[in-house]
Each structure stands twice: as structure tokens, then as C-alpha cells.
Amino acid sequence: VLNRRCVEAAVMTGLALNCHINKKSLFDRKHFFYADLPAGYQITQQRVPIAVNGSLSYSLCIDNKMSQMVTKTVRIKQIQLEQDSGKSLRDDIRSQTLVDLNRAGVGLMELVMEPDMCCGEEAAAAVRELQLILQTLGSSQAVMAEGQLRVDANVSVHHPGEPYGVRTEVKNINSIRFLAKAVDYEIQRQIEELGNGRTILNETRAFDSKLGCTVPMRDKEGKQDYRFMPEPNLPPLILYDAKSLPANMNYQQLINIDWIHERLPDLPTVKREKLVEQYGILPEHSFTLLNEDGLAEFFESVVKQTQMKPKKVIGWILNDLLSYLKQHSLTVKESPVSSFLLADLLNLLEKKEISSTAAKRVLAELWKGEGKTPLETVKEQKLELLQDQKELEQICQAVIDGQENE
Hints:
Blueprint: H1 4-16, E1 20-21, E2 24-25, E3 28-31, E4 41-44, E5 51-62, E6 65-83, E7 87-91, E8 96-100, E9 107-113, H2 120-137, E10 151-155, E11 168-173, H3 176-195, E12 203-208, E13 213-219, E14 229-230, E15 237-238, H4 257-262, H5 268-279, H6 283-291, H7 295-305, H8 310-327, H9 339-350, H10 356-367, H11 374-380, H12 389-405
Parallel strand pairs: 11-12
Antiparallel strand pairs: 1-5, 2-15, 3-4, 3-14, 5-6, 6-9, 7-8, 10-11, 12-13
Helix pairs in contact: 2-3, 5-6, 6-7, 7-9, 9-10
């Protein structure tokens, strides 16, 4: 049975990626035998997928400098609906393979990109942008570590002006960081193979994150006959727009492309523009805020609770708090320093009750998660700035008198 929510999610994703939505798409059976595919076939969209000819714009830094960013575009060839397979789990201790069939048959959306990227950094940036879009749309939670978003990277090398070389496919990459490493390793491996007079095999490979390299899984030299045939249990999928909606039909049984388009939320690009416009921050800072899970919401929460200007708040979040998070491999949602605590700390700093150096010491104490407020930490460690001029003069005089005695 076709899942209506899967169709809506695919249409929404296609619209967000500037795709042409096919009002008529077809389902096919792809036959092959594997242990995690007990039916012996997979329902997919081989001939006419639900969406085609889109594009995804993404940005990346030049030479790791946030102030120097370039925007690139990768073409989207198609988006198709298909069945997910099961999952094979290798048990090396018992020398056996176990099969988890919990997700077999569940609806899956596959997005195919054109070969428009030239390094791991570009692939990682494009997939991160796609991940943000999927999360914004609600099409997927897209947590790679939990298998909600998986990437297959097809890599080939060639001299400029020459045809593409033989490609290899690195399957089921479950981390953006690993994606960048896998692509860069595979590019270098193929260059070295060709440089030594060897040929590249058309094969499927896996990325070993512990060794930092790709390893062979199976070859593709003998082209497999999948014996595609029209799926007999699913008729063509018909979608409508405002102009083609039939009269006297139950609209709950129809999917209106225009209705979905009107309800698209603000995509990451628009969110970045709004952050820059509303808070006066730099464009590169808006990328960091959105790219780190939950950081934009954290920033806006702090801004609402503090008297400090947003430009200063962003500096404390990106330069200080974020360094703690990365050091401990945490997201801002897991941070022991809440937006309320950081706002309290920044208010003390803005009122000139503490110095910037003292504020950094307080932040370090807050990170320990002992439940103290910034003000309690300031008083315990006597970090207040002196406001009483007479008291300050007495301290200065005492220092001078001490120097005279020496």
C-alpha cells in the first residue's frame, strides 16, 4: 500500500530543491536476491520518478576561513520513492551475519545528484545543506548516526576535458565527516592507481572509519540484470495542481502540488538572511548558527534575555561556548550552560560588574554544571569590578605604600 505521507514528503522535498514534479509517476519492481530483501524484489521508480531536474545550492569556506565563503550548486537528477531493505549485521565473534528486517518494506526517498562536486569538502557541505532542508521540511529527522539519512558516494577521476573515468561507489556512509574523508581518500587512491599503470575497477566499496580508508565490498564488472517490470500492485501515481483538480472528488484522496508549495516553511537560506537582517550579524556567522544543531534557537533565546547587543552575543557563543561544545563533542542541546545562564553572565558583563577575563572564568565554572548561578560564582571567587572610587584609591595607596617600604 502506498503511504500518502511518503508521497507528500517527496513532493515537498522536490519543491524545496527546485525540482519539476511529475504529475504522473510510475512504480517498478527491481528483482535481486539478498538476505536483507526477503521478497526477492524492491519496489522503486525506475522509469518515471516523482521529481526530476532540481538544484541544491550550498556554501563552503575557502581555506577554512569563515570570512571567505563561496556558494556552489549541484544539480538534482531525480527524487524517487522506493522500499527500504533490511540491515545486515556482521558478528565477527561468531563468524556469522545477522539480519534486521525491522525497516524492510518501509517507504524510502532516494535523491540522486549529478557529478558536479570535486572534493570531499564540497560533498560534505552539500549533504549538510540537504540535511538542514529535510529537517526544516519535516521530511526526515535526517540523523545520520541513526540511519535516517545515508549517503552513497560515486567517485571517479579524469583529466580536464576528458570523459569521466571508471567510478566506484562507496556505500552507506553514516556521517558527514566520514563522507568528506571517504571521498578525498577515494580520489587520491584512484589517482595513485592510475599513476602506477593500474586500472580502476567498477566496484562497490565501504569506508572503514577506524582505518580512514575505503575497502572493497563487491565488484560490478558483470552488470546485474534486475529484470525491471511495472509494479502490478501499484497503479500510476497521479498528482494534481490547482488548475487540474477534478470536480466532485474527495480531496482527501488527492495530493495538490500547489497546496503543498504554499505551505513550504522558510528554508535554511531564508533563515540565514533573516538572522543577518534582524540581528546585524555577519553572513558567515549565520551559517555557523544554522549548521550547528540547535545553535540558532540558543542564540535567539540568549539575545531575548540579555541587554548585550547581538553582535557581542554571537562572539561569546561562537568563540567561547562553541569551543567547549566541540571539545566535548556535544551539541548545544546537551550543554550544561543553558541560554538562561549565559544571558545572566552576559548581563553582568554588560553592566560592567565583571571584566571580560572574569566572565571567561565564570563560564568555565558554569561548564562544570554544579548548579551555581553566574552571580553566585562571581561572589564566591570575588570577581566583581570595584565601583567605589574611594575603595579603589585605598587599594592603590596600599600598593604604593608597600613599594615605599621595600
